[in-house]
Amino acid sequence: MIEHHKGNIIINFLVALVLLCMKYDFAFASAKVTCIEKEREALLTFKKGLIDHGGVFSSWRIENVENMKNECCKWNGVFCSNTTGHVTALLLPGNWSRDYYLEGNKISSSLLDLHHLENLDLSGNEFGGTKIPKFIGSLKNLRHLNLRQSNFSGIIPLQIGNIINLQTLDISSNDLLSENLNWLSHLSLLSRFDLSYCNISDPNWLQNILKLPSLQELYLQYSYFPEFKSTSLINSSSKSLSILDLTSTELDSSTFDWLFNVSTSLTKIYLSNNRIKGQIPDAFAKLNFLEYLDLSRNMLEGEIPKSLKNLSHLQNLLLAYNNLSGTLPEMMKSFGLRQLSLRGNNFTGSVPESLGQLSKLEFLDVSFNYLKGIISESNFKKLGNLKVLDLSFNSLAFNISPDWIPDFDLDVINLARCETGPGFPTWIRTQRSFSWLDLSNAGISSKVPKWLWSNLSPGVQYLNLSHNQISGTIPDFSPEMMFVSIDVSYNKFSGPVPLFPPSNWIFQLSQNMFSGPISSICDVSYGALALLDLSSNRLTGEIPNCWEQMSSLHILNLGNNSFSGAIPHGLGSLLQLETLHLRDNNLSGKLPSTLQNCSSLRMIDIGGNRLTGKIPGWIVGANFPDMTHLSFRGNRFRGSIPSEICSLTQIQMLDLSRNNFSGKIPQCFDNFGSLVDKSTINSGMIGISFQLTDYNVSSLNIVKDYIDYALVQWKGQELEYRRTLTLLKLVDLSGNRLVGDIPGSFSSLKGLISLNLSRNSLTGNLNHDIGQMEMLECLDLSSNRLSGTIPIGLARLHYLAVLDLANNDLTGKIPSSTQLQSFNASAFAGNSELCGLPLTLCPGDGPDPSTSNQFGDSDEEKDDGDGILTLSFLKEFGISIIVGFIFGFWGVVGSLLVKESWRRTYFSFWDGIGNWLYVRTTVLWTKLWIS
Ligand SMILES: *[C@@H]1O[C@H](CO)[C@@H](O)[C@H](O)[C@H]1NC(C)=O
Ligand SMILES: *[C@@H]1O[C@H](CO)[C@@H](O)[C@H](O)[C@H]1NC(C)=O
Ligand SMILES: *[C@@H]1O[C@H](CO)[C@@H](O)[C@H](O)[C@H]1NC(C)=O
Ligand SMILES: *[C@@H]1O[C@H](CO)[C@@H](O)[C@H](O)[C@H]1NC(C)=O
Ligand SMILES: *[C@@H]1O[C@H](CO)[C@@H](O)[C@H](O)[C@H]1NC(C)=O
Ligand SMILES: *[C@@H]1O[C@H](CO)[C@@H](O)[C@H](O)[C@H]1NC(C)=O
Q: Disease resistance R13L4/SHOC-2-like LRR domain spans which residues (predicted)?
């Protein structure tokens, strides 16, 4: 029996071998078909007109070997008929990201000699803004034409309408115009048409397109077209159109007037990122074949209409980021729904158990709503196919038995802000292959279970356990893991800092009890690392010196630990570094001069150490064109403040307080452009955005934020400034040994909000035009040897909330104004010759208002309420701004979400900045897309 079986296998094998040989022979024979001489010449002429990047044409050679001479059918991208030898396809798509493309500003008309060409793909190349050549219309046999994203511009040639065999046409992502789409009328076979990123000015664009009798797929993403009148659509609806993509086309609510007349056979409708207001119309229920409906990112409101339950084919319902309200729909029960995205709406009530009946559901995202109540096993009863579960940012609490074994094996688990504690949710243990786990802010106060670490699959990309009370240690991560982001900050983790995998971009361990040295980070080369935050732990030893291995680092925060020794000179190799926090350690020695290489730096905070030496002359604007925040606070720096520092024209916060600086204050403070101009805000935005690679669904693009902060003396207290840091414009030179006058240039710092020069040995008068510093909220000049009278201008600083002039040699009468008199007497104490309210009245003082003019600086314009927001104004309204930058590769698209998600999550947000970000990222995206 066994023998017999064996024999069979051998026979099968032989038969297979023979078949294989025959096949091979056949293939060999077909490859021998030689290309037509004339067509070879045509191809060579085509090649001659183009520059080849990355070897597109490397195989396009004429060998001298007799037999090989005509083998142009083997050239890259050339395909011939295996019977006639004619070239039937020329497929030369470029790829910019691989630096593999063709460049030229003319396509040779020699292509016309390829009479049998059926398929032409020149997408992704660079044709330098040239027009699409008219002769293309003479390639009568073409069935597929792809010129996507190849930098063509100008008017789409009408001649394309002559290619009557055309079945697919993609001319998207170029800079094309179309005034008239009448030429489409001849293309009776066209089934797929992509005109995305095109400027269409034909008022009858939609009728002209819908007349195409075979059209099945129409893509018009990011296109511009004239407003459409529903009446003009009568009798022109398409019988065949199945896919309609109108993403990001600025459509408004009138869309619904015509949408339902476009085609009765629609299966997929993409309408996200438009301006559609109002309710979701019941008319969707008439589209019987609808499978995919994306209405995300509009302004829809009201409830999800019950009529949608008639859509028995519906599989994907994407309604994220609207203003929809009401409770979650019960009616979905009957659907074969696979994807339900309701993120970022106003849904209320509980998560209905009926959702747990959707046995085909793979993707469930109800995050960022106002859902309440308990989540139990019954919510997941039949969800055996679920892959993505996002319940984050509601008010949901989990009540799930520790023995529960769910039927699903999730890929994405996002339970941020869900009450899943106090114990660590044990069911997570049954999830073997997740790539995303977010349990931040989940009220977990137990020890981290050991299985969590051993369970992590190699594919896990994102782990967020931050803002809990989780204790325990974290073992080293295997270097093979694919992590992009690990955040365990704000917990009670202890033990040594674990090794993390080199793929990681983001590593946040701050606000824990990690201890010991971190020298082991030098054992791995972290080339991808962008954010390293180990602040507020108990780390000791020297700061390691292996930074050239982390050349992508943008943010480094080692503050509030017990690091000792010198600042390593290797930090100078971090050319991308934007933010350097080494505050509150035991660092000593001088600033390494290599730091001047870090020309991307915006913020240096090295306060609260024992650093010595002078401020180096290389701290100049030429080295640090973007520097906005500089804090040397609380060190042992000495010498004079070099005037070079004034060339940091973007500076908003200069804190040199509590050092041993001596000499005079440089005269050049009026060079600080950002402090002079009250409207400049050097805001950036730190947000590291990236996207989960497997899910090309907008609601899963996750944005990681990093909010920069500084410790400052603000209104008399040392405070950590986070949210409004970019608005804070501050100069603090207090607690040094500075002498001489307060330079007159200070008065030109019209944007300055806080000025502290206290506890020095400054002499001379107060500036008479101090009233020009109209944004000033805090002024502390106490404990100097200032003399003379208090200028009346001081009384005009409307925003002044903190004033301290105590312990000087000021004389005369305190100018009268409701403001100055409202300060405590202690603000003026210790000036023996000063009088008037709130101190004792001056001798012979009367209620004569003219006396107050003696200090007059009459040239000053009084302006109140010019619309500039003060810090306290902004604070009052809870408005905040986040410092930083955006970066990311494919993640850029994800950063479009920044505005929404941040607004809904941690911080309220200043819309102006939000829009700036939106514009910037959109532009960036469009650029990436088009270029
Ligand atoms: C020609 O060759 C291709 C690919 O080798 C093959 O798929 C096709 O069936 C062949 N056509 C004919 C007519 O032999
Ligand atoms: C370009 O090449 C990259 C890297 O090989 C690849 O990931 C990407 O999909 C390619 N793009 C296109 C449009 O083919
Ligand atoms: C297209 O080509 C023009 C002309 O060479 C050039 O200025 C432009 O930058 C190119 N556009 C893109 C998106 O590459
Ligand atoms: C589209 O083209 C017209 C000219 O035909 C021009 O006036 C208009 O500004 C363009 N629109 C966009 C969005 O580029
Ligand atoms: C639409 O078609 C019907 C019947 O074919 C015809 O009576 C009617 O006039 C047409 N309407 C328009 C606006 O062309
Ligand atoms: C939805 O919520 C937003 C933010 O809380 C609120 O401004 C808006 O008025 C709400 N809309 C409705 C229809 O309840």
A: 239-431
Q: Cα of 194 to ligand 1 centre, how many Å?
A: 29
Looking at every residue in the chain, the average pLDDT score rounds to 82
517 phi and psi angles, rounded to 5 deg? -80, 165
pLDDT of 917 reads 30
Task: Give the global pTM.
Answer: 0.79
Give the separation between CA 117 and CA 110, rounded to whole angstroms: 12
Nearest ligand 5 atom to the CA of 234 is: 13
Reply yes or no: is the peptide bond before residue 93 cis, omega within 30 of 0: no
Asked if the model's pLDDT at residue 163 lies above 50, the reply is yes
Question: Which one of 488, 520, 550 terminates a domain?
Answer: 488
- What number does the ligand 1 atom closest to the CA of 82 have? 1
Minimum CA distance residue for ligand 5 atom 5: 235
Number of structural domains in the chain = 4
Ligand nearest to the CA of 234: 5
Query: 3-state class of 66 per DSSP?
Result: helix
Contact assessment for residue 865 and residue 798, using Cβ atoms and an 8 Å cutoff: no
Instruction: Report in angstroms the alpha-carbon separations of 581 from 458, 506, 555, 687, 751.
Output: 32, 16, 8, 17, 25
In tens, the pLDDT along 203-220 reads 889 889 998 999 999 999
Pocket-forming residues, ligand 5, beta carbon under 6 Å: 234-235
CB 492 within 8 A of CB 469: yes
CA 98 to ligand 2: nearest atom: 2
Tokens in use for 456?
């992590």
More confident call, 687 vs 248: 248
Q: Residue range 561-585: average pLDDT?
A: 94
Verify that 856 and 883 share a domain, yes or no.
no
In a domain, 51, yes or no: yes
Instruction: Give me the half-sphere count of Cα atoms (radius 13 Å) on the Cβ side of residue 741.
Output: 12
Compute, in angstroms, the gap from residue 199 CA to the centroid of ligand 4. Answer: 6
Compute the distance from residue 30 Cα to the ligand 1 centre, in Å: 8
Please list the alpha-helical segments (H only) found in 345-459.
450-455
In this structure, the answer to whether residues 185 and 162 fall within a common structural domain is: yes
**CB under 6 Å to ligand 1: residues?**
27, 30, 82-83
Cα Rg for the chain, rounded, in angstroms? Answer: 35
Domain range spanning residue 69? 36-85
